[in-house]
Write a structure and sequence with these properties.
Helix content is about 55%, strand content about 15%. The longest helix is centred in the last third of the chain and has 90 residues. InterPro entries: RpnA (IPR010106). It holds the Pfam family PDDEXK_2.
Length: about 325
């Protein structure tokens, strides 16, 4: 485990959220990255970046912890996040981050129109919306007039780091290439600072220990979540098997019921046939008795003849002659 974590630490780059956070804590780097993301704002200075700052929209609400949080001299708020894995909840996630960041933009008693602007920036190691863009800038708009942007002071910016489209300007592209560990121009001042800062981070024993502890926790957490998912899968499979068993049981019951119904029908048919045969036999016997009496054959002979021919009991013979 220690060897695995050591290699993981050595190989980790800006795409690792822990390394990203420690590198972006550098004032000059954070300022330059924001300038490259938002060149039109002409940001002159920012407050010292703060990482893992936590906000709660309400006392009983889910808290949000920002990777990198800062403000500029105009009061604009910036949250910078590194998203390593795609949990397929990016839209809802950025909405909540923006809500928390925007709450900081409203001072008590301040008119709404004086609220500071809020920027939430996600660097994603995947295409956040699977639309092939390298950069996604999100604003509210009117559905009936899509080109009409609502200027509410909120801006969401998401970068698809693996993208090779090169739709951003060269300076921004250099930073994205650094995150993706692609070849970059060594003379770019930001690239030089990033490499120097990463070397400082990697030499920091405290951060290395913290990284390894966090990695162990994440591995344990991943294993627990895997076991939970496996348990949930088994439960789902068990439920499906139970439903299938119930379906088969119902099908068997239906087949049994149909079989019983067919058997009853056959039994009824047999009874009807036996009844018909019995009635026919009675008719024949009665006709034979009448015919032999007409020939003046004595009753004893008739009884004997009928009994032997139709295999009747004495009682049955008696019943025929009693009629």
């Amino acid at each position: 485990m220690n060897e695995f974590l050591r290699k993981k630490w050595e190989m980790a780059g800006l795409a690792d959220d822990y390394i990203f956070n420690k590198v972006m804590l550098d004032y000059d780097i954070c300022l330059e990255v924001l300038r490259r993301i938002l060149p039109d704002l002409h940001i002159k200075k920012i407050k010292l970046p703060n990482n893992q700052q936590e906000f709660a929209v309400a006392p009983d609400a889910k808290a949000v912890r920002f990777d990198i949080y800062t403000t500029d001299e105009q009061g604009n708020h910036y949250d910078i996040e590194m998203q390593v894995a795609d949990h397929h909840n990016i839209a809802k996630r950025i909405r909540y981050y923006q809500t928390a960041s925007s709450m900081e933009a409203y001072d008590k008693g301040q008119p709404y129109e004086q609220a500071d602007d809020s920027y939430v920036i996600f660097f994603c190691n995947f295409d956040p919306f699977q639309l092939g863009q390298q950069r996604y800038v999100l604003h509210k708009h009117i559905d009936e007039i899509p080109e009409q942007i609502i200027e509410d002071g909120q801006t969401d910016i998401l970068f698809n780091v693996p993208s090779l489209r090169h739709d951003v300007d060269p300076k921004m592209q250099a930073f994205l290439d650094m995150i993706a560990q692609r070849k970059v121009e060594a003379t770019d001042p930001l690239v030089v600072k990033l490499k120097e800062r990463m070397a400082i981070v990697k030499r920091n024993r405290k951060w290395r220990s913290e990284y390894m502890r966090r990695s162990v926790y994440e591995i344990d957490q991943e294993m627990r979540e895997k076991k939970i998912r496996e348990g949930e899968r088994k439960i789902r499979d068990g439920k499906l098997e139970l439903l299938e068993g119930k379906r088969e049981l119902l099908e068997s019951k239906r087949e049994i019921k149909e079989g019983q119904d067919r058997l009853k029908e056959k039994e009824q048919l047999i009874q009807e046939r036996e009844q018909k045969l019995h009635e026919n036999q009675q008719t024949i016997i009665k006709t034979s008795i009448v015919a032999m009496k007409a020939l003046n054959i004595d009753e004893t002979t008739i009884r004997k003849e009928i009994k032997e021919k139709f295999n009747l009991s004495d009682k049955e013979i008696k019943d025929y002659f009693a009629e």
